[in-house]
Specification:
InterPro entries: PhoX, TAT_signal. Pfam families: PhoX. It is a single chain. The chain is mainly beta and about 675 residues long. The chain has one domain. Helices cover about 10% and strands about 25% of the residues. The chain starts with about 35 loop residues before the first helix and ends in an 8-residue tail after the last strand.
Length: about 675
């Protein structure tokens, strides 16, 4: 998720800078289509989702009045002056704001639930920012919380006042963790500092309860767990498990891995497990000397010079000393939060790339469809369809469901249609002639296989999530400032796309449960083009009634409430002069693409992990890397959120938002 370091932030925090990308085979299209695409892909007339299907609707658009195209400007001011909003969201919008603290819509409470360093496991010591110890961090809440999932207690229920939270810890900010720390000086860190960084990565499971409007963490819960990069054992499963390219000196079976890194977004399964991503794992490996057998593979993933010095004390992170270790990262992981004795599993059938997350929907035929993005510029969108059906009555019967199925990659066409291309050994170019000797090879080198199939390079596919109400899939594309004018296409219509956009994919078959996610074709349209509509150069497109507070930049993660409305979290909006935060919108009807501003993060932070309880009355989210501004340090941070105490650095935290007096979020 955090691919673009804020201004002044060293790339040594574990996420590649936005200038980096690894795809050497970016396709180009005709530059003379740019103007037509920018006009033709404007948001459809209000409430008519089928009016535009890519370039095929240009003639329909030309016949419409300007206000109906979704262009925001004078139309929005006129609407605001004399008409009621067509949105079903009735909360009072907050203005664009960027300061030291959080802000939420009037009538709501935003409670800090847990912070970096707070206790998770029994016996965890109190947080002391001046004495960071790896042994303590293994029992405490980790750093830079990202994806968040809520699991009702008991399993299988819809309880919205008592449950488990599962939270990713993506990476660390050295300059905000230690006094006087040079974030680039990875060669001078002590082993204790390295081990602390590794302990601060990974995942947490906590038990939470609601009393009135207040949520609290249940202390010493039997469900509480901390997964880390330092010591947690993970199992590899699926077609690539045990393959010789995954075997190491410490694990000659190729089936067991210590640790997980850069855990970004994720998803939840209908049988009560969480899926967590390994995203920018390349930044943890010293790759200045690449093994000949994996050189092409590792270069395609950007493995070269690390942002972390872990290899100095843990040789497995040096490709020269352990040539296959990097192949054991870059997978989706499944964890059972209800079973504190379970071993987390890296599911290789879902492919290996820089996973942003994985979100699921039960297909009309009972099988599971899993949608995922590869979060790097000019990378691809994926779908996985299980071979067997989901057994909701017996959760244990789904234990191996994600090990068998078909992985697909997306190719978008300019006429508003698309194809899902199967990544199957022996299909098309995926043969021994191109170095793919088995399905394991296809999955280990998913990016290269997708490129050979002719997948569409996208503008950083981040969250990809099916809407459980409509059955369509929303694809969040955060930005891509490196796309040139002759590289645009209908699905990525803006060169130098600094603000990002959101696509909607409509499977055939009908709405909701009738949608046919097994189909290898679909239609698509642009939901919105982010940016400031007051700046024509942004090329932004929203509903014409969008207010001055309603525009956003760099959409990242999304969630859907029980009514199917979209809630959008951003990462990188500060480059446009506004705080990252949460915006919400209808996806159907008269309020479609009318985004409304709900929550703002503190300076330097991004917004992560939006997730609602089953009844829609609590909105959980994660404030990641608060204070991560230029020249902000442990000793002189740009904010001390959430504690605002002298000597206490900013602390990534989970926030629980509720309506004062109760009720559904958004009303």
């Amino acid at each position: 998720m955090t691919q673009n370091p804020p201004e002044g932030l060293s790339p040594a925090v574990g996420a590649p800078g936005e200038a980096d990308y690894s795809n050497p085979s970016v396709t180009t299209t005709l530059g003379d289509l740019i103007a037509a695409r920018l006009g033709g892909l404007a948001q459809a007339p209000v409430g008519r989702r089928d009016a535009l299907r890519g370039l095929g609707a240009l003639s329909a658009l030309a016949a419409l009045p300007a206000a109906a195209t979704g262009l925001v400007g004078a139309a929005s001011k006129a609407h605001a002056a004399g008409s009621a909003s067509p949105s079903t969201l009735t909360f009072a919008e907050i203005p664009h704001i960027l300061d030291a603290t959080t802000h939420v819509a009037e009538g709501y409470n935003a409670q800090v639930l847990i912070r970096w360093g707070d206790p998770v496991l029994p016996g965890a010591p109190a947080f002391d920012p001046n004495a960071l110890k790896a042994a303590d961090q293994l029992k405490q809440f980790g750093y830079n919380n990202d994806f968040l999932g809520y699991f009702p207690l008991e399993r299988g229920s819809n309880t919205s006042t008592h449950g488990l939270l599962t939270i990713n810890h993506e990476y660390v900010d050295r300059k905000l963790m230690w006094s006087g720390q040079d974030p680039d000086a990875i060669d001078t860190q002590t082993k204790e500092q390295i081990d602390y960084e590794m302990a601060a990565h990974g995942h947490s499971v906590i038990e939470v309860k609601k009393d009135g409007d207040t949520w609290s963490v249940v202390p010493d819960s039997r469900y509480a767990r901390r997964f880390s990069a330092l010591e947690t054992e993970f199992t590899l499963s699926g077609p690539a498990a045990g393959h010789k390219r995954l075997r190491t000196s410490a694990d000659p079976t190729g089936t067991k891995v210590i640790g997980t890194v850069n855990n970004c977004a994720g998803g939840v399964t209908p049988w009560g497990t969480v899926l967590i991503a390994e995203e920018n794992f390349d930044r943890y490996f010293m790759g200045e000397s690449l093994p000949a057998a994996e050189e092409q593979n590792y270069k395609r993933l950007g493995i070269k010079k690390p942002d972390y010095g872990w290899y100095r004390f843990h040789p497995r992170f040096d490709t020269a000393r352990e040539p296959n270790e990097a192949n054991r990262f870059g997978w989706m992981i499944e964890i059972d939060p209800y079973d504190p004795t379970s071993t987390p599993i890296k599911r290789t059938a879902l492919g290996r790339f820089k996973h942003e997350g994985a979100n699921v929907i039960v297909n009309h035929d009972g099988r599971l469809a899993v949608y995922a993005g590869d979060d790097e510029r000019f990378e691809f969108l994926y779908k996985f369809l299980t071979k067997n059906k989901v057994d909701l009555a017996n959760p244990a019967n789904n234990k191996h469901l994600l090990d068998e199925g078909t992985l697909y990659v997306a190719r978008f066409k300019d006429d508003g249609t698309m194809a899902w291309l199967p990544l199957v050994h022996g299909h098309g170019p995926l043969t021994a002639a191109n170095g793919f000797n088995s399905q394991a090879d296809v999955l280990i080198e998913t990016r290269r296989a997708a490129t050979l199939l002719g997948a569409t390079p996208m503008d950083r596919p981040e969250d990809v999530e099916p809407n459980p109400v409509t059955g369509s899939i929303f694809v969040v594309l955060t930005n891509n400032t490196k796309r040139k004018p002759d590289q645009v296409d209908a699905a990525n219509p803006r060169p130098a796309n600094e603000h990002g956009h959101i696509l909607e994919i409509i499977p055939p078959g009908g709405k909701g449960a009738q949608a046919r996610h097994e189909a290898e074709t679909a239609t698509w349209m642009i939901f919105l083009l982010a940016g400031n509509p007051a700046k024509p150069e942004d090329g932004a497109r929203y509903h014409p009634a969008t207010t001055e507070a309603g525009w956003l930049s760099c959409p990242d993660n999304i969630a859907f409430d029980p009514k199917g409305r979209i809630w959008i979290a951003t990462d990188g909006a500060t480059k446009a002069g506004i705080a990252d935060g949460i915006w919400a919108s209808d996806v159907e009807g008269d309020g479609r693409a009318l985004t409304r501003h709900f929550f703002a993060t503190p300076t330097g932070a991004e917004m992560c992990g939006p997730f609602l309880t089953p009844d829609g009355t609590t909105f959980f989210c994660c404030v990641q890397h608060p204070g991560d501004d230029k020249d902000s340090t442990f000793d002189k941070p740009s904010t001390r959120w959430p504690d605002f105490k002298d000597g206490m650095p900013p602390r990534p935290s989970v926030v629980a938002i509720t309506r004062k007096g109760g009720g559904e979020i958004g009303q």
